[in-house]
Amino acid sequence: MKRPEPFEVFQPVSIPEACELFRKHGPGGHFLAGGTDLVIAIKEKGLVPRYVVDLKKIPSLTGIR
Questions:
Q1: Which of 35, 36, 39, 61 has the fewest CB atoms found within 10 Å of its own CB?
Q2: Distance in angstroms (rounded) separating the CA atoms of residues 58 and 56
Q3: Does 2 reside within a domain?
Q4: For each of the chain's 65 residues, which pLDDT tens digit applies?
Q5: 44 lies in which domain range?
Q6: Phi/psi-derived region of residue 37, left when phi > 0, alpha when psi is between -120 and 50, beta in every other case
């Protein structure tokens, strides 16, 4: 299996910060929320994100209520 291309990962702590990262860095970014779909797309389908915004550190987005 081919090794994925490197990409930058950001870990914002708020929703406004996550949105600002997308505005600042432009196209080619992907949200990471759990990771299953994104990881499969990278490993098996050849997706090459420019950057990833990991949502795990945003308290209001953790868990299902």
A1: 36
A2: 6
A3: no
A4: 566 678 999 999 999 999 999 999 999 999 998 877 888 888 888 899 999 999 999 998 887 76
A5: 8-57
A6: alpha
In eight-state DSSP terms, residue 2 is P
What's the confidence (pLDDT) of residue 27? 94
Instruction: Give the global pTM.
Output: 0.82
Distances (CA, A) of 59 to 13, 29, 50, 53, 56: 7, 21, 25, 15, 8
DSSP-based three-state secondary structure for 48: coil
How far apart are the C-alpha atoms of 17 and 13, rounded to whole Å? 7
Does residue 64 belong to any structural domain of this protein? no
Q: Which pair of tokens denotes residue 49?
A: 């994100």
